[in-house]
Protein 1
Amino acid sequence: MSDESQGLVDRQKIWECLLRYTRGVDRLDRALTLAAFHPDAMIDQGAFRGGREAFADWVLGHHRDHQAVTQHTMTNFLCEIDGEFAHSETYVSYYGVNLTGKDSFAVGRYVDRLERRAGQWRIVDRVCVTEGATDFDKNAVVARFSPGPQSIARSTRNTSDPSYARPLAIQRD
């Protein structure tokens, strides 16, 4: 494989690692959340600073106890790879439908150092840079956007969510 092709494969594997984290958090899937990080990873989330196990307990507990729905959306992605090491910066926006009171919206960036170990790209160090965050009153627009029977497939925050179905198969008439 050419160096250029390997670089594209590595970037894709790093992107998939980052997606494991956001999917894991939004689905409250501890194993998937942990799979984004090497065992010795350190995470600085502002309100939390520590290792991956304690971080998973903290972040999943917070989202489970305070939100009915969360969605982390990653966009701009810049990645610099140097052999078995990489640095990435990924823009993220977050929306949380809170169980009580106001809902939440935040934007920021994940700044990560990753390593490829035994062929697996995972995060070793992460700093979450918050650019802005707000809580806002629920209103008519938000009420319509809040969780409801908007489709036959219901979003769940566990492995019963349709995204885990293998194979995904829609019943045919």
Protein 2
Amino acid sequence: MASVLKVDKLDPQSGTALEIGTSGDTVSIPSGATLDISASTLTPPATLPASSGVNLTALNATNLGSGTVPTARLGTGTASSSTVLYGDNTWAAAGGDNTPAFEAYSSVDQTSIADATWTTVEFGTELYDSDGCYDTGTFRFTPTTAGKYFTYASCNLNSGSYPTMGMCGITIKKNTSNVTYALVDHRGNVTGRSGYPNTMTTVDMNGTSDYLNVTGWMTPGGTFASGSYVTYFGAYKLIT
């Protein structure tokens, strides 16, 4: 028969420890009641029973003596062999990507280049174009992401006759301004008829309207010769 003991305080008879119940018994705290141990020290057993951890708000991670924390509990996003956990608690690819990026080359000769006239070099065949930012109609690269871009170009400028090449050169332009150029001077070399200028630089792009293209110049006039190994133009975004 159940009975109720109503007291304000329980003290152990010996003054050392108070035991409630006997092994095998169940001691229950009914719904609505509160067991307040905030001013005391609670020493849990070596193995805790299954329970919700919602209210474990001050768990010191330095006390985790063994085991591992599942990656599913370490931030948002997808953890994998190609992602890292950033300081904002998100999983993302390490380092970023060097895109937009492209390289194009001339697959056909560009003939009838006028003497001493800067002329757009027509790199009409794409080797790759990660974001579709290079236009084979205008021969311009207009990246859609702002940042610093490494850009490079090379060209085979051929006077068509031997040995008449004087000077030749190419320039990479941002919009309408030169950002880098290279010249080849054959005036002291009577055996020259071709020049192979190449150049490279880093340039800031706004990700909206800025574009890059290449122009060539030669005297006398002649041909911008084709060939993916000599007449090419490319760029890619730097990770900064």
Protein 3
Amino acid sequence: MVSIIACLKKLPELARVAMLGLALCCSGLLSAAEIEIPSAQLLSTDDGYVLSADFSFELSQRLEEAVNKGVVLHFLFEFEMGKRRWYWFDEKLVARQTEVRLYYHALTRQYRLTTGGLHQSFSTLGEALRVLSRVRSWLVIERAAAEKLGLRAGDSYQAAVRMKLDISQLPKPFQVAAFGNRDWNLSSDWKSWQLVLPGGESR
């Protein structure tokens, strides 16, 4: 910080203002993640392994306004699982993602969450966000795929999950506004944990 201030003192006034603005912008981009992940776990079922996770976040005023004006927000949930290897790069065994779209349906005056062909409607944005923040029984590894990969109950694996707003799916004018703007960016860091693959079926 001292060296930066010393350099700024040697610059003309206008250049100092520009450099300071750039520094503040960069510090905002490097700030903590806007989405927290309090819990995540992998469970065994008849169909395979399912993920349940909780996410904690709030929409900025700009994002709320965008939703209420009919802009669709695309949220990506990503899951990875692999094995750590001391002698080489970590081995990635599973990489899955799913998308949930949040939007306001003006005709019915309801907020909707859409995943694939499934739809859920809510009378308030708060209700929709509460459901969006809870992922339940997401099938991330099918039983046949687990057998093909050689996954074994009782073995240790490294799992990770994250959530983010996919700004590349926003309309072009909003993508421009979102670039480098914290009001438009919403994401979590990867939440990683060591797990012992569960066996049996959870009823």
